[in-house]
Design goal:
This protein is mostly helical. It contains three helices and no strands.
C-alpha cells in the first residue's frame, strides 16, 4: 500500500509538473510573441519617424524658399512704390513749372499776349514767338504724358506684385501649418517609441 501510494503521489506530482511546465512554455511563447510584436511595432515606428523627418526637412526647405521669395517680392513692391512717389513729385513739379511759364508768358510785356505779339520786331519774330510758346507747351504736355504713363505702369506693377506677395504669404502660412502638424506627429511618434522601449525594458 505504501508503495502504491508513493507511486500514485509521484504520478500526481509528475502530472502537476508537466502541467506547470506546459503552462510555463505557453507563457514564454506568449512573451516571445509580445516581444516580437513590440520589436516589429518599434521598427515600423522608427521607419515612420524617418519618413516624417524627411518630410519635415522638405517642408523646411520649401518654407525657406517661399520666405526668400516673399522678402524679394516685398522689396520689389517697396521700390515700385518709391518710384511712384518720385514720379508723382516729378508730375507736380512739371505742373508747377508749366504754371510759372504760363504766368511768365501772360505777364511779360505788360501782362498780355497782345502786347507780347505786338512787341514782335517783324512777322518772322512773331512766328518765332508763337513757335516758342507752342513748343514749350507741347514739351510740357509730352513730359506730363510720359510721366503719367510711367506712373500708371508702376501702379499696375504694384498691383501685380502685391497679388504675388499675397499668394506667397498664403503659401508661407500653409507651409508653417504643415510644419507644426508634422512636428506634432513626430512628437507623438517619439512618445510611442519611448513607451515601447519601456515595455522592452520591462520584458
Amino acid at each position: 500500500n505504501i508503495i502504491f501510494l508513493l507511486t500514485l503521489s509521484m504520478c500526481i506530482q509528475k502530472d502537476v509538473l508537466a502541467d506547470e511546465l506546459e503552462d510555463l512554455r505557453n507563457k514564454v511563447q506568449i512573451a516571445d510573441q509580445e516581444l516580437t510584436e513590440i520589436q516589429s511595432n518599434l521598427s515600423n515606428l522608427n521607419n515612420t519617424i524617418i519618413n516624417h523627418t524627411i518630410s519635415l526637412e522638405s517642408t523646411n526647405e520649401e518654407l525657406g524658399k517661399v520666405s526668400e521669395e516673399l522678402v524679394e517680392k516685398q522689396s520689389e513692391v517697396s521700390k515700385a512704390k518709391e518710384e511712384i512717389e518720385k514720379l508723382t513729385k516729378d508730375i507736380e513739379l512739371v505742373y508747377e513749372n508749366a504754371g510759372v511759364q504760363a504766368r511768365t508768358i501772360q505777364t511779360s510785356s505788360v501782362n498780355n499776349y497782345l502786347v507780347f505779339i505786338l512787341n514782335s520786331d517783324d512777322f518772322n519774330d512773331l512766328v518765332k514767338r508763337f513757335n516758342s510758346i507752342s513748343k514749350l507747351m507741347a514739351a510740357n504736355e509730352q513730359i506730363l504724358k510720359d510721366l503719367e504713363k510711367n506712373k500708371k505702369e508702376y501702379e499696375e506693377k504694384v498691383v501685380f506684385l502685391e497679388k504675388q506677395e499675397k499668394n506667397l504669404l498664403t503659401k508661407q502660412t500653409s507651409y508653417e501649418t504643415l510644419k507644426e502638424k508634422q512636428l506634432e506627429e513626430e512628437s507623438n511618434l517619439k512618445q510611442e517609441v519611448d513607451a515601447y522601449n519601456l515595455k522592452l525594458e520591462d520584458s
